[in-house]
Write a structure and sequence with these properties.
5-stranded mixed beta sheet; Methylamine Dehydrogenase, Chain H; nucleus; 4-stranded antiparallel beta sheet; repeat; 354 residues; WD40_repeat_dom_sf; WD repeat; single chain; mainly beta
C-alpha cells in the first residue's frame, strides 16, 4: 500500500457532530468557504453552517452564518446557479428537502425554499443530487420513489417519475447530464435513467457477487463529466467498482469483493465505503499515463477510518488512517490538492497534498 505525501494536515475540533461537508463554489478569487451539516446530540438541533476557511498554518474555520432545521440531514449538496451565486441543497431523515441561497456579499442565508416532510417520500430521503447549474434535484428513498425537483428562486416544483411501492430501495443518486442520472441501492445494484425515455430505468446492473456482497448497499455514486458512460460506486464490504454502460454486466472492481474471491488483494477497506469521488488531483505525468479505457483515480472514505486514493491496476494510496469513521469528504475543485473530511469524533480534517 502506497502512502501519499501530505504537505499539510490538521484536525479542527468541533463542538457538534458533522454529518456532511462541502466546499462552497467560490464567491471571489480570495475567499474560501465550507458548508457543514451539523448535529448537536445534546439539544437534537440540526443546522447548516457556512464557515470561512483560512488555509493558514494551522488553518482556521470561522462560522459566518447558520440555518436551523427540524430534522437531521441525510444528504448535502452544493451547486453554482450563476457566477457568484451558489446554492445549497439538503435533505433530511424526516423526508423534507431544503434549498438555501447564500448572499454573495456576506454569505448570510438570504432565502430558503423547501418541500415539507412526507411529500416527496414516505420516510427518509436517503440521497439527493443537484445538477451542476442548480436548476434541478433528484431525490431517492428506501420507499422506492424517485422524484425530480425543479429549483426556482420563489419555490420548488416536483414530479414523481417512478414508484416501486417499496419493492426496490434506493440509497444513492447522481446526475450524469441534464437528462440522465444514476441511482444505486440494495444488492450493490445500479440503475440508469433517461428522462427522454420515461417509465423506469433504461439500464440496470444487479450485483452478483459471492461472499454475501449481494446483500450490500451502494452508499455513493460519482460520474465524471467527460466520461458519463462510466458510473463509479462505493458501498458495503469495502466495495468500490465502476459500471461501464458499454459493458453493463461486467463491473470493474477497484477494491473489495470480486466475483469468486472473498477480498481483492488491493482492498483498502473491509467496511462501509461512505463516499466516492473522482480524484481530480493528478500530475502532468500521471495524466499522460491514464488511458481512456482505464478508470480515472478515485478517492474514498470509510467506516473504518480510511481516506484513500484508488487507481485501477495499482496499489491503493492511503491518505489517512483514523481511529474513527470518516463520514464525508470533499475535494476543492479550484484547488484539488486540498481535501476536507469529517470524523465521527466531532472534528474536521484539512489536508493539502504535495
Amino acid at each position: 500500500m502506497a502512502t501519499e505525501t501530505l504537505k499539510q494536515f490538521h484536525r479542527l475540533p468541533q463542538s457538534t457532530y458533522v454529518d456532511a461537508l462541502r466546499f462552497l463554489p467560490p464567491l471571489s478569487a480570495f475567499d474560501r468557504y465550507v458548508v457543514v451539516a451539523s448535529f448537536n446530540s445534546d439539544s437534537d438541533e440540526t443546522s447548516i453552517e457556512i464557515h470561512a476557511l483560512n488555509p493558514s498554518t494551522p488553518p482556521i474555520l470561522t462560522l459566518q452564518s447558520s440555518f436551523t432545521l427540524s430534522s437531521r440531514i441525510s444528504s448535502l449538496k452544493v451547486a453554482q446557479k450563476s457566477l457568484q451565486n451558489p446554492l445549497i441543497a439538503a435533505s433530511t431523515f424526516a423526508g423534507s428537502l431544503h434549498v438555501l441561497f447564500p448572499n454573495p456579499i456576506d454569505v448570510s442565508f438570504e432565502s430558503e425554499v423547501s418541500i415539507p416532510e412526507k411529500t416527496l417520500h414516505l420516510g427518509p430521503i436517503t440521497c439527493l443530487d443537484l445538477q451542476e447549474n442548480g436548476s434541478a434535484c433528484v431525490s431517492v428513498g428506501e420507499d422506492g420513489r424517485v422524484n425530480l425537483i425543479s429549483v426556482g428562486d420563489s419555490g420548488l416544483d416536483y414530479r414523481r417519475i417512478f414508484d416501486s411501492k417499496g419493492l426496490v430501495s434506493y440509497t444513492a443518486s447522481r446526475w450524469a447530464s441534464p437528462t440522465e442520472f444514476a441511482t444505486g441501492g440494495l444488492g450493490n445494484s445500479l440503475q440508469w435513467w433517461d428522462q427522454r425515455r420515461p417509465g423506469g430505468p433504461v439500464s440496470q446492473f444487479k450485483g452478483n457477487w459471492s461472499q454475501g456482497a449481494a446483500s450490500g448497499v451502494v452508499h455513493s455514486i460519482d460520474i465524471h463529466p467527460s466520461r458519463k458512460h462510466t458510473c463509479l460506486a462505493g458501498g458495503s464490504y469495502g466495495t468500490v467498482f465502476a459500471w461501464d454502460l458499454r459493458r453493463p454486466q461486467q463491473p470493474i472492481v477497484l477494491s473489495g469483493i470480486d466475483a469468486g474471491e472473498p477480498m481483492s488483494s488491493s482492498s483498502i477497506s473491509e467496511s462501509e465505503v461512505w463516499e466516492v469521488q473522482y480524484d481530480t488531483f493528478m500530475s502532468a505525468s500521471n495524466r499522460a499515463n491514464i488511458s481512456s479505457e482505464r478508470v480515472l483515480p478515485v478517492m474514498i472514505c470509510s467506516e473504518d477510518g480510511i481516506l484513500a486514493v484508488i487507481k485501477q491496476g495499482d496499489e491503493p494510496t492511503e491518505l489517512l488512517a483514523e481511529n474513527c469513521a470518516i463520514n464525508s469528504f470533499d475535494i476543492d475543485r479550484q484547488n484539488p490538492s486540498d481535501v476536507i473530511c469529517s470524523h465521527e469524533w466531532e472534528s474536521i480534517a484539512f489536508l493539502t497534498r504535495a
